[in-house]
């Protein structure tokens, strides 16, 4: 007997996806695995132990109610889904109360592809159906799976493009069968000295391959979100491009490859500074071209860098750090509506330091 999503299942998936990106809302990617959050904590001298991770994630989740106007979903790491604040309240319940969708990172990291120049695929399919069913029962609405591709003279190889597209599609189909909206994240790393044009060409190839695979796997596009890189020049490219050039290259690549049935593009920040990530998002939404999807943010570093700096691991700084989070979330919501201007930053804490981590794959 063939397996299909019922109309009710499709309706539920489409509603979750639309709800996350409605009216300029975006996603807080707080799903750093324990190794990755350790790198973030290193920058503020905080020890990477479970208690500090709990304190930090409590700060993020218990932010003022008004955060719901800017954040439609938060992606959690497994550990956080079951953590409680000091009063014994589950952190995920803060999100539920605010009407914010609960997301979960379900991939298990990257592994090398034999015979390639350090290229990778992402693992985690074994037992994914059971894990998704449990996450759904535990209140999750959506999931995230990240694949990584690299630009060099000889990469991404066709093998890496095809393999990563297929594993993303397989993951997406398993999520949907369990009532979970999959975020499809094929990240092309910004490492290298390649031009904006080269990144556009590779992004088009990679995203087109993803949509071919999603179609082959009968994934219901209305019940998915895409989390791509913006099209930017390589980190070491000597030519600098304006936000408008980045916006047009990004929109051109997406308009050529992403079906309008897919409701929302939720960009990763990829090591851009907080202010660049916001400026680029604004330029994308201010461009005078047809944009059939919501174009918003799913930032990790670009929403948290100045929050971490304000917190520094001290209980007395929690309220100040939460204000910083609210501010960054609001700036990005405005950018997702094309209404942001750098003068809105005030004398606040926006960070214009690059957040680039070489070969960011962990
Ligand atoms: C690319 O990383 C994702 C978006 O973060 P940025 O906006 O900082 O680029 C992020 O969600 C990432 O996938 C998580 O931090 C999980 O990473 P690890 O490497 O711990 O799986």
Automatic annotation (TrEMBL):
It comes from the Eukaryota. Keywords: Glycolysis, Lyase, Schiff base. Pathway: Carbohydrate degradation; glycolysis; D-glyceraldehyde 3-phosphate and glycerone phosphate from D-glucose: step 4/4. Its EC number is 4.1.2.13. It catalyses: beta-D-fructose 1,6-bisphosphate = D-glyceraldehyde 3-phosphate + dihydroxyacetone phosphate. It is an enzyme of class 4 (lyase). CDD domains: FBP_aldolase_I_a. The keyword Lyase applies. Residues 342-362 are annotated as: Disordered. NCBIfam families: FrucBisAld_I. Belongs to the class I fructose-bisphosphate aldolase family. This is Fructose-bisphosphate aldolase.
């Amino acid at each position: 007997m063939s397996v299909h999503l019922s109309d009710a299942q499709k309706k539920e998936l489409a509603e979750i996806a639309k709800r996350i990106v409605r009216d300029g809302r975006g996603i807080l990617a707080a799903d750093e695995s324990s190794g990755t959050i350790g790198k973030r904590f290193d920058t503020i001298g905080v020890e990477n132990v479970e208690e500090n991770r709990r304190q930090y994630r409590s700060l993020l989740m218990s932010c003022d109610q008004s955060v719901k106007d800017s954040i439609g979903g938060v992606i959690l790491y497994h550990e956080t889904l079951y953590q409680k604040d000091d009063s014994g309240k589950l952190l995920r319940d803060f999100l539920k109360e605010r009407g914010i969708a609960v997301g979960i990172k379900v991939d298990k990291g990257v592994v090398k592809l034999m015979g390639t120049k350090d290229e990778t695929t992402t693992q985690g399919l074994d037992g994914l159906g059971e894990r998704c069913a449990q996450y759904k029962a535990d209140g999750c609405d959506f999931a995230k799976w990240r694949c990584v591709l690299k630009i060099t003279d000889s990469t991404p190889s066709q093998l890496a493009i095809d393999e990563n597209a297929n594993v993303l599609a397989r993951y997406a189909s398993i999520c949907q069968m369990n009532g979970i909206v999959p975020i499809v994240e094929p990240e092309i790393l910004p490492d290298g000295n390649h031009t904006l044009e080269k990144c556009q060409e590779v992004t088009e190839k990679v995203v087109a391959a993803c949509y071919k695979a999603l179609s082959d796997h009968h994934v219901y596009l209305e019940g998915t979100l895409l989390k791509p890189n913006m099209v930017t020049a390589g980190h070491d490219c000597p030519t600098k491009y304006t936000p408008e050039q980045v916006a047009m290259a990004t929109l051109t690549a997406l308009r050529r490859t992403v079906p309008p049935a897919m409701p929302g593009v939720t960009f990763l920040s990829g090591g851009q500074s907080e202010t660049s990530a916001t400026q680029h998002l604004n330029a994308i939404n201010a461009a005078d071209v047809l944009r059939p999807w919501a174009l918003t943010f799913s930032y990790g570093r670009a929403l948290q860098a100045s929050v971490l700096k304000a917190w520094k691991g001290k209980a007395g700084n929690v309220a100040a750090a939460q204000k910083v989070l609210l501010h960054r979330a609001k700036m990005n919501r405005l950018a997702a509506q094309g209404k942001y201007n750098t003068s809105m930053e005030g004398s606040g804490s926006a960070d214009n330091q690059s957040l680039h981590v070489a070969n960011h794959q962990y």
